[in-house]
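haha ok so turns out i had the wrong file open the whole time. this is the CORRECT one, sorry everyone. sequence first:
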Amino acid sequence: MTRQDYLALVDELTEHDRRYYVEADPTISDGEYDKLNKQLLEIEKHHPDWIVEWSPTQRIGHAPVSEFAKVTRPVAMLSLDNTYNEDDLRAFYDRVVKGLDGDVPVFSVEPKIDGFGIELTYKKGQLTLGATRGDGRIGEDVTANVKSVKGVALKLREPIDLVVRGEIYMTKAEFDAINAERAKHGEELFKNPRNTAAGSIKQQDPREVAKRPMRTILYEVVDGERYASGHFASLALLKQLGIPTSAHNSRAQSWEELIAQVHSWADRRDSLPYEVDGLVVKVDDFAMRTALGTTSKFPKWAIAYKFPARQVTTILREIEINIGRTGAVTPVAILDPVDVSGTTVARASLHNWDQVARLGLRIGDRVTIQKAGEIIPEILNVTVSAEGELIVPPTVCPFCKSELEREEGRVVLLCPNRIGCPAQRLGAIEFFAGRGQMNIDGLGEKLVEQLVEAGLISDIGDLFTLTVNKLLGLDRFGKLSAENLIKAIAKAKSAATFSKLLGSLGITNVGSTLAQVIANKYRKLSTLRAAAADKSSEALIAELNDIDKVGNTIATHVDKFLRDPHVAKVLDKLAAHGLDPEEPITVVTEGPLTGKLLVVTGTLTQPRADVQKRIEAAGGKVAGSVTKKTTYLVAGADTGKTKLEAAEKNGVKVITEEELEALFQS
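then structure:
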């Protein structure tokens, strides 16, 4: 056996992987494949220096990571504008023809896979980077996880440099099989294939990612004009290189052909093995695309035609009450299970109690439901009313028996027992420990749940009573992991400032910015509590109201929080464990951001609270919403459409985290 023989075997197995996962047309049996794979493993065991990164055995060869590195791409991964009816699609067609001075282009028509966007970079034919979409400009490096996805080519058939985009997805059958297995073990079921694929590819252990049956379809070559004159020709190149593309793409050369193909998908959509939520219509010719150009958000040469939501009827059997971390009391409809767009729906959100009243719901009603955006089930109306009384909102919390409240001008019903309510406890602890709050590394949702179930903690104050010996009694908790958690708690405690602590307590509408201005006045939590003890509610609210940015509503929230007896017990625990940090005094007279008002949003490479403090230290001010007064919107990964649209509407410049860093240095 020579190294050339080894490389030939790697190429042979890679081709078999492609035939199986991409073409769905294997040329050998599973037994024969396993025999070859076993042979490859044996060779690599005896010749570890021969192993190449594109070997099929290296798909799960990476250790877990603590976090994903950020990737800034030179060509933004833009969103697609959406249309939901034929009139809007015709308007897009007419805009394209007009933009091309009357020339009618060839369009590609492609099924829009409901998956997770990904960008793959190949250097000399070898996969070197897999990045998430993020905010379009900045994504996350998930290369190790992408390599574990069967069907992703680790090495191309030619040594070419290439950047290509597409979707990672899960078939409906594989998704159902995963849920059947989870149900067998009493585990919570996944909601839909798209979210499962997205959550899987963002896991920090590639070995766990490899256990999920995910696939990929690539649909766009970045800078495709370097390789071909048009989109279809570039897709042919991808197939030639061994990259999976859709077998269901077609072309249309007129409006009549285009709309006929749209109509043909009315029944075809359910025949595909994966979820599709619409069609993507693109101009094929790259030169025409360049002539048409893009907006700040969308290419003018492409559009997504979304399929109409499927509607079915079923029976309302029960109203379940959910209480989130913020205390919002949300009604959830429990329904007779019914199939909607290929998935079984047995629950639907009712958003709030005003929606329940508007619909006039009764237990036993036959209701019409649909999936909003083909994902979220919602009740549209009552088709047949049942006898009985109308459903009315609860008056007390079913979990802690606190009297529920509704703030003036808001539709949300709230349980005010933010820290003492069992339904809010897990969320309150997780929020307190999270990134941007106290930053207790490693204390995530599952561990919080485990600590509460074991009786080791019941609120945030108990976190500081944990010891290594207490943790060693938990399942799957070794000495090293126990020591790491205790060190993380101690580190968070020593690094805490009053503003960080205050922003971590979960006071309604008090985030890092408002926590900072309140902390600047009172300096310590004990001082703020003493003010509440010495003053009436009216006096304290007036005092808080005098602080810049703190209005009457926020002042009332803070006052009510401090006077809650459940809260008092928890804050006493924090004080007893020495958690009463002082806010450092920072005086800024002039800086590079003096006179500038910034809004910070999306996922950043550092905690948002730290970024906001740096802005203020540089003389700038931070706001929570974009208005005409805003100077810059700092947009990290996963920035929502709302803030971007507000920035465009108000003429506010959108900058990246890197551009903000440059402003700090100016």
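The domain at 3-52 is CATH 1.10.287.610 (Helix Hairpins).
again sry for the mixup
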